[in-house]
Design a protein that fits this description.
- Helix 1 runs parallel beside helix 2 and helix 5 packs across helix 7.
- The chain is 22% helix and 25% strand.
- It contains 7 helices and 22 strands.
- The protein has 3 domains: 101 residues, OB fold (Dihydrolipoamide Acetyltransferase, E2P) (Beta Barrel), CATH 2.40.50; 50 residues, E3-binding domain (Dihydrolipoamide Transferase, Irregular), CATH 4.10.320.10; 222 residues, 2-Layer Sandwich (Chloramphenicol Acetyltransferase).
């Protein structure tokens, strides 16, 4: 019996995916849940499991091709026990449309959920399914990389053992492979005068979202420069605390906590404009987006119920979120339902900017670089650690006074963070 496996819905309204590479060829025998392809959506790179056991009869897309959800992807030869035809189908052809087949990387498995602390009275939400096991592996015979990166390296003729990874803990990224391939090519030919790159994946999704945001919401940006010497001193002390051993404790961690605390007093910045329903939705929880630069482009996954987390828990959550995003393994659910975003432009040496709102959110806070700057302090001009905060907000939801008061509250916590010690 022939069984047609169509590209499943990867979640959150995504309508297409790019086939990065195939793990199987026509004629191969495959088992149930065996990984058959690496695919990349606008939000994540995932491994696609086989929904049946059988023999690969046909592959309906080539590596690099974009496939619409619902379009045929693979045809298998199966036995009658492996697949059942839907009513009205060709009796010799079945479609792999079981619930398991619509969950990328999940296969046949029991449902699991990750428990999370919630603040009293916070709006309830359904638990987020555990993401598929898509972590980069450290093979005994080679360096750390992800399946799509290995596929790309093979297609470009790049030996992974000759590549130095620039990702987290030496992870080899797509950019590393492309750079190695271009260097090898430059040894054989002069540099091209022009290079054309297809607009797709995260770059395409980000561009469309930013254009929609810029031309939908009237955005205003305000700036405030603050002395954060007390925060940098606190961070230095906490890094010697055994509880923070091995954890990334940065200015972003403190800003994230300050944002959650300030939103309790300024809930208009934690809201959404619903034009279709002609309603303003104000959230009783904080799903805090962390803008993350990756080799696939800018991504904004969010920490669910961030207001319920201590400073220690936020440090862990941010670290895990950034590592997963940079590895390209963020689950689609982690991009959904964000309520406010923080972007740390200071890591690139930038002092301030005008961040564009993540679509549907009321505000985004930019964190500038910490500078050792002459500053008025206790009647004298001394060198202090100073940074600039840049707050963009939707003027339909937040007026100037509300935005300014929220920003000054965040700045006040950074200026005097000692009360945070009770929230560790």
């Amino acid at each position: 019996m022939r069984t047609i496996f169509s590209l499943p819905d990867l979640g959150e309204g995504l309508t297409e995916s790019e086939v990065v590479g195939w793990r199987v060829s026509v004629g191969d025998n495959v088992e149930l849940n065996q990984i058959i392809a690496d695919v990349e959506t606008a939000k994540a790179a995932v491994e696609l499991p086989s929904p049946v056991a059988g023999v690969v009869a046909a592959l309906h897309a080539e590596a690099g091709q974009t496939v619409a959800v619902g379009a045929p992807l693979v045809t298998f030869e199966t036995t009658a026990d492996d697949a059942a035809a839907s009513p009205g189908d060709d009796p010799d052809t079945a479609r792999a449309d079981s619930p398991e087949a619509h969950l990328v990387g999940y296969g046949a498995r029991a449902e699991t959920a990750v428990p999370r602390r919630r603040a009293a009275g916070a709006a309830s939400q359904a638990p987020t399914p555990a993401p598929p096991a898509l972590a980069p592996d450290a093979r005994p015979d080679g360096p750390r990389s992800t399946p799509p990166v290995r596929t790309l390296a093979a297609s470009l003729g790049v030996d992974l053992r000759t590549v130095t990874g620039t990702g987290d803990r030496g992870l080899i990224t797509r950019a590393d492979i492309e750079l190695a391939a271009s260097r090898a090519e430059s040894g054989r030919a002069s540099r091209a005068r022009e290079t054309r790159t297809a607009i797709r994946g995260v770059r395409k999704h980000t561009a469309e979202a930013m254009v929609a945001s810029a031309f939908t919401a009237p955005q205003v940006t305000v700036f405030l420069t603050v002395d954060v010497s007390a925060t940098t001193e606190l961070l230095a002390r906490l890094r010697t605390d055994p509880r923070f051993d091995g954890r990334r404790l940065t200015i972003l961690t403190v800003v994230a906590k300050a944002v959650c605390l300030a939103l309790a007093r300024h809930e208009t910045l934690n809201s959404r404009w619903d034009g279709a329903a002609q309603e303003i939705i104000t959230f009783g929880y904080v799903n805090l987006g962390i803008a993350t630069a990756t080799d696939r482009g800018l991504m904004v996954p969010n920490i669910k119920d961030a207001e319920t987390l201590s400073l220690l828990e936020l440090a862990d959550a941010i670290g895990a979120l950034v590592d997963t995003a940079r590895a390209g393994h963020t689950a689609p659910a982690d991009f959904a339902h964000g309520t406010i975003t923080v972007t740390n432009i200071g890591v690139f040496g930038v002092d301030a900017g005008t961040p564009i709102l993540n679509p549907g959110e009321a505000a985004i806070l930019g964190i500038g670089a910490v500078r050792h700057t002459p500053w008025g302090y206790r009647g004298e001009v001394v060198l202090r650690d100073v940074l600039t905060l840049s707050l963009s907000f939707d003027h339909r939801l937040v007026d100037g006074e509300q935005g300014a008061r929220f920003l000054t509250d965040v700045a006040a916590i950074l200026h005097n963070p000692l009360p945070l010690l009770t929230l560790l």
